[in-house]
Amino acid sequence: MPRLFTALEIPRDAALSLSLLRGGLPGARWIDVENYHITLRFIGDVEGHIADEVANALDRIRRPEFTLQLSGVNAFGSKKPHSLVAGVSPSPDIQALHAEIERICQRLMLPADQRKFTPHVTLARLRNVRNEEVAHYLSSRGNFSTAPFTIGRFVLMSSRDSIGGGPYIVEEAWPLEAPRSFYPNRAERPLEASRINR
Fold first, then answer.
1. Of 8, 28, 48, 2, which Cα lies nearest the Cα of 155?
2. Motif HXTX 1: which residue numbers (predicted)?
């Protein structure tokens, strides 16, 4: 079975900015640009009927679009760094979306994710890289940030690579709702109909 997780995709301009961080650290295994994403909730290897239940439950999520900004570069693994990541500026919207997906996973009795939710984009996997080299890499890229970008949907992704790092496949996608200001005429708002289904 494929390994499943919910995620946010990285738009092209932000991915291009991230790609400029590649290189300059011997021993780093860089993630392909097309595989950049922000994991919302790791689900894991599940049977097909469980995957269907997850997808059906995610169908009921109704949340507005929001903006995100990537900011800062860091390493995960305090004593022995194992990955390089770009951080996400604080966002109540991404936290709320994650919390709703987490509640759905708990209702479906999926194993809890033991790690604290720290939104990020993985840039590289590290093996046998000296701590001093990682520190030097991070200090020279500490002021990294992207322009804010709009998150218009979240996705269910799969990976068949046991090592991690892709290739990732979008299995399903759920749009987020456009702000009401896009619909100056009240009668045109699609949100009115969706409220009935909540």
1. 8
2. 37-40
> Is 98 labeled as catalytic in the residue annotation?
no
Residue from 37, 49, 82, 136 carrying the catalytic annotation: 37
3-175 CATH pick, 3.90.1140.10, 3.90.1150.10, 1.20.140.10, 3.20.20.370: 3.90.1140.10
Q: Which of 82, 98, 120, 136 is catalytic?
A: 120
Q: Decide: residue 185, CB within 10 A, 0-12 exposed, 13-18 middle, 19+ buried.
A: exposed
Least confident span in 2-6, 60-64, 190-194: 190-194
Q: Does residue 49 have an active-site annotation?
A: no
pTM to 2 decimals? 0.86
| 3-class SS letters over the chain | CCEEEEEEECCHHHHHHHHCCCCCCCCEEECCHHHCEEEEEEEEECCHHHHHHHHHHHCCCCCECEEECEEEEEEECCCCCCEEEEEECCCHHHHHHHHHHHHHHHHCCCCCCCCCCCCEEEEEEECCCCHHHHHHHHHCCCCCECCCEEECEEEEEEECCCCCCCCEEEEEEEECECCHHHCCCHHHCCHHHHHHCC
Structure tokens at 158: 């799969």
Q: Where along the chain do its domains lie?
A: 3-175
